[in-house]
From TrEMBL:
SMART domains: Gp_dh_N (SM00846). It holds the Pfam family Gp_dh_N. Residues 3-90 form the Glyceraldehyde 3-phosphate dehydrogenase NAD(P) binding domain. This is Glyceraldehyde 3-phosphate dehydrogenase NAD(P) binding domain-containing protein. It comes from Billgrantia pellis. It comes from the Bacteria. SUPFAM superfamilies: NAD(P)-binding Rossmann-fold domains. GO terms for molecular function: NAD binding.
Length: 104
């Protein structure tokens, strides 16, 4: 069973969660909530992390659309909510927040 994951915030730690979890076929990153930027900015930060270096996802190309980051043809939708009250609406199983990361 695939675990669907939403990330609240997309700072250095949250980008690391996506980088390390992306190769795992049992994890499906479905959305990111961060009111502090747009898809192009977050895509660039994911590709060129100041601490972990350039994206080394192999054949996983990273691009962006107006409201999503696309990693190897899988879309991760972006939201800019200050209040994540609607988090269950898209059927996210787990939420990796700044305070805790899902142990997968």
């Amino acid at each position: 069973m695939t675990l669907r994951i939403g990330i609240n915030g997309f700072g250095r730690i949250e980008r690391l969660v996506l980088r390390t979890g992306r190769p795992n076929p049992d994890l499906d990153f479905v959305r990111i909530n961060d009111p502090g930027g747009g898809a192009a900015t977050f895509t660039h930060l994911l590709q060129f992390d100041p601490v972990y270096g350039q994206w080394s996802g192999g054949s996983d190309d990273i691009t962006s659309t107006e409201d999503a980051i696309v990693v190897a043809d899988a879309q991760v939708k972006l939201y800019a909510w200050h209040d994540n009250e609607d988090g269950d609406a898209c059927r996210v199983s787990e939420l990796a927040a700044k305070a805790g990361i899902v142990d997968a």
